[in-house]
Every structure is written in structure tokens, then in C-alpha cells.
Amino acid sequence: MYTYKYPRPAVTADIMVFDTKYKNILLILRGNDPFKNCWAFPGGFFDMEDRDIEHTAARELEEETGLSGIPLHEFCVASREGRDPRGRTVTIVFEAAVNPADVNPQGGDDASEARWFPLSGLPPLAFDHSEILEKWIKRNIK
How far is Cα 110 from Cα 41, in angstroms, rounded to an integer? Predict the structure, then answer.
């Protein structure tokens, strides 16, 4: 086995799911530490079995919300040191828009709940998700 002398960061995918009018966002209530019982984007770790990061995003979205078959588009990469207390973690953030009447999100896996929130009235978010969402708002909401 080849060994590498440089430490490697973990890689995750996070997904921002908006309603089609971009007034609401789907968040999950984290069931595990860190940030247990805090709201966050659905997402999770890139597994060695995943084909690619897009597969990770789709898998995590389905596991944590029950939503599948939703087109996901890459939004940004977040890699600031300290963004995840478990260690150096780089996330690829995806975005999607769905009609809430067409889906029935349910918390699953390590998400104890999934719920829509208005962008104008968000709870505190886990990790650096507030910063990521603010970046999205600055880029997309005029």
C-alpha cells in the first residue's frame, strides 16, 4: 500500500434545497454531534464507495430527507480552517430547487427532522452553513 506523507482532509457534500420561488430552504435537524439538535443543510461524508461527489450529494439528500431524483448543481467549495470541529473538512456545496407541493421531506438517517424555513426567518445554522447561504444570497438575490 502506498503511504502519503501529507495529511488529508475529509471531503463532504452539502445540499441547499430551495423552493422554486427561492423564498424557503429545506433544513435538517442534526441527530448527532457535532451540532446535535441544530439545523443544517442535508449532507455528509464522501465515502470510498461513492462513484463521485455528485453521488455523495444525491445519496446524502435521499438518506436525510427522502428526496431523490432531484437535479443538483454545484454552487461552491467551502474549505475554511475550523469550519468543522471534527477536523479539516472540505465541502462541495450543491443547490437545487423543487416545488414543495411535489415532495414530502422526512428526516432520516442521522437527521431527526427535515423542515422548510423561510429565508427571512432562519434558525441558527450548524458549521459554516450561514456563511455559505449568505454567499448564495449575495450572488443570486437582487
Answer: 12
What residues are annotated to the active site? 113
Pull the grid cell for residue 40.
443544517
Handedness of CA 38, 39, 41, 47 (dihedral sign): positive
Pairing label, strands 24-30, 43-45: unpaired
pTM of the predicted structure, to 2 decimals: 0.94
Residue 23: which CATH number? 3.90.79.10
pLDDT digits (tens, 9 = 90+) for 37-82: 999 999 999 999 999 999 999 999 999 999 999 999 999 999 999 9
Q: Which domain holds residue 73?
A: 10-140
